[in-house]
Every structure is written in C-alpha cells, then in structure tokens.
Amino acid sequence: MTPPAVETTTDASRIQTLFNRIAPVYDRLNDWLSVGQHRIWKLMTVKWSQASSGDTCLDLCCGSGDLAQLLGERVGKTGQVFGVDFSCAQLEIARQRGENHYPPLSLHWIEADALHLPFADNFFDAATMGYGLRNVTDIPLSLRELHRVLKPGATAAILDFHRPNNPTLNAIQQWILQTIVVPVATANGLQDEYAYILPSLEKFPQGPEQIRLAKQAGFAQATHYPISGGIMGVLVVTKRLS
Fold this sequence. Notes:
Helix content is 45%, strand content 20%. It has 10 helices and 7 strands. The two termini are 30 Å apart.
C-alpha cells in the first residue's frame, strides 16, 4: 500500500476547523462510536506506552484531554504531561477537564502542529496518541516527528479506529456510523463534519503498513495490536536505545 501523499496547507486548515467545530460534542460522539469502550482502549494505550512515575510524557493530538489525564495519573505528582493539539477549542475543553481533576495533575496544554512539534530532540520518556494518526495530513512525517522527540529507548502507543478485515465486523462498523453516529452528529448540526469518518477509515493504513511506516521513520520496534476484532488498533513503537 502506498503511504498517503503529503497534503496541502488547505487540507490541514480544513481538519483544524473541523475539530474546532466538533469539540463541544466530541466526547459524547466518541462514546457512541465506540459503544462506550474507548475508555478501556485508552487505559490499554497508556499501559502500552510504558509511562511510569516521574516521567515527562507527550499526548499528541490530545483532543479533549482524557488520554493526557490518564497519563498524568500514571506519572504522578513527580511527572508531567504535555498535551498537544492544533484545535484551540479542543484544548480549552482539555484545560477545563484538567482543572477539575483532584488531586491536581501536572498537565501542560500546547497548541501546535503534530508535523512540527515545538520540542527538543530526545525530550519525552513516553508518548500516546489517540485518534490522531488517521487525521494528520502526512503520516510518515508525523511518525518521524514523534520519533525525534522521544528519548532513546522510549515507547509510544498510538490508538485509532480501523477498518476491520472481517466482513461482518466491517458491516457492523458501517451500521454504527450510518445509523447512530452520523444521525447524532446531524442533530447537533455537524453532519458534514462526521461524514468524513468513513472515507478516513478507507484510506487509513492497516496494521502491517503502519508497522512498515514506523520502522521507516526510525523506530527500532513496532507492533500493531488489533482490538475488538480489528475495529480498533494500537500501534506500539519503541525508539532505539542508541
């Protein structure tokens, strides 16, 4: 499979606008889309990132901040988490969520592009990314940037929806999208915004291709774990020690 082509600044702006618009209902529609299972998948993702107490971690494409918050709970009061997203509306929700957490967590919210991260090389002990890889305009570049900012030996876990190979599960996924998610989005005035999900799944690289792209980006190890029959998957990548 050929990697997705590099898209234009107009494509990035369109995606940014989309996520700003869906921010108020993003969490609710994730519940519908995953039938409530996304909370479990995110806990698995944080565990696979190998983040531990005292670590400095990155949550890339952090959205409304729930995955960053889970990372913050894992690294504890001696660690810190940087949540990065290019949607200012999503980041505002993430900030509010973080402020309401008790005990307080060391969370930092940064508006930035996943393709041009404002961090030094070898900065993070671990990283997560939830539903972001499918939406960046250049998957190989985003993986190279992630590789650059991770410390040697660090691991990142990348969670996203996938197109299942099983015809029955594929049909179920399409049914959920067409009869639950898009109608709910339509009721909130966001039909066009959520209609993009099916096309994004169609062009998203499957597990073996994600592994190939990760190794091409420089990662020494890459493993893809299908979840829920392949409806969901986590790509776990580790940077070479030296």
